Amino acid sequence: MSKQELIVAVVAALALGLVACTDTGQSSSTESSSSESGASSASGNSSPTVESVGMPKLPQGDDPVELDPADFTTEIDNPYWPMTPGARWTFNEIDEEGNKLKVVVIVTRETKQLANGITARVVRDTVSENGELIEDTFDWYAQDSEGNVWYMGEDTAEFANGKIKNKKGSWEAGVDGALPGIALPADPQPGLAYRQEYYEGKAEDNGEVLSIEEMAEVPFGQFGDVLLTKDTITLEPDVLEYKLYAKDVGPVLVFGVSGGGGREELVEKDTAPRNAGTTPLGTR
Q1: Cα(96)–Cα(88) distance, rounded to whole angstroms?
Q2: What single string gives the DSSP state of each residue in 120-183?
Q3: Which residues in the chain come in under a pLDDT of 50?
Q4: Tell me, what's the pLDDT at 234?
Q5: What are the tens digits of pLDDT across the range 85-143?
Q6: Is 266 helix (H, G, I), strand (E, B) or coil?
């Protein structure tokens, strides 16, 4: 058994009784599903390693990068997460303490000029519990000419009793040594690893592609040929999370398997009102 096969087997055991994936088709539904949500393990085919011929080279750790603003666009059409302005994803989340949360992600029609000269798409991400806002974030994304989606930073705040508690984790590429990372690669291949963000001592997240042959079922629908990634945090080595992305939909399922973390399932994808997500942090 190869390293990648072993990794995927572990994923299958952890993801609440996942089954082998042999179906390469995809179907979705806007109707809620009463069946148990989950993701299957990949097929038993041997997977390439990072050293494989043709594996794209993406930034790792604190690798410096020289990016040409002319090489980037705010029109993000990566099939695993197409960020069409106005697109809205709504997730139900059960956190590590069993609390029920609502997560809403909106691709706004706004852009932001970053310190590194790149113009990024602004994406609003809010988390609420029983209608009360507990986290609010503006994320900044841009896509290069090869189709890689880059994460350029975030303005984020945690709230308590309607007031900002802290803004830990905020960073911007090109400011105070912060470096952009990859949110989603253009050509995901099992074994492909990359940094997602780097702000020394404050934001050091990493991603790795485990499979592109998964299945996932969530209230929004059932999907095949799903991308499965493994996310880790250098500053929190005990934390491990898995994310699944369906083609032409985006993220559909997220679950933590170590160091806390909960389970987040897509329940709806629709189009938000034109100005949704554009109000200041802490307001909706």
Answers
A1: 25
A2: EEEEEEEEEETTEEEEEEEEEEEEETTSPEEEEEEEEEEEETTEEEE-TT-EETTSTT-EEEEE
A3: 1-37, 39-52
A4: 97
A5: 999 999 999 998 999 999 999 999 999 999 999 999 999 999 999 999 999 999 999 99
A6: strand
pLDDT attached to residue 38: 52
Count the neighbouring beta carbons within 10 Å of the beta carbon of residue 138: 22
Q: Give the Cα separation of 110 and 99 in Å (integer).
A: 32
- pLDDT of amino acid 56: 85
3-state secondary structure of 104: strand
Task: Compute CA 179 distance to the chain's CA centroid, rounded to the nearest angstrom.
Answer: 18
Cα separation, 26 vs 220, whole angstroms: 13
Q: How many CB atoms lie within 10 A of CB 259?
A: 14
Q: Which of 232, 216, 262 is nearest to 7 (CA)?
A: 232
Tokens coding 116:
């590194």
**Measured distance CA(25)–CA(226) in Å, rounded:** 10
Bridge partners, 117 (sequence order): none
Return d(Cα 54, Cα 183) in angstroms, integer: 20
The C-alpha atoms of residue 124 and residue 107 are separated, in whole angstroms, by: 6
Domain map (residue ranges) of the chain: 3-271
DSSP type of residue 83: B
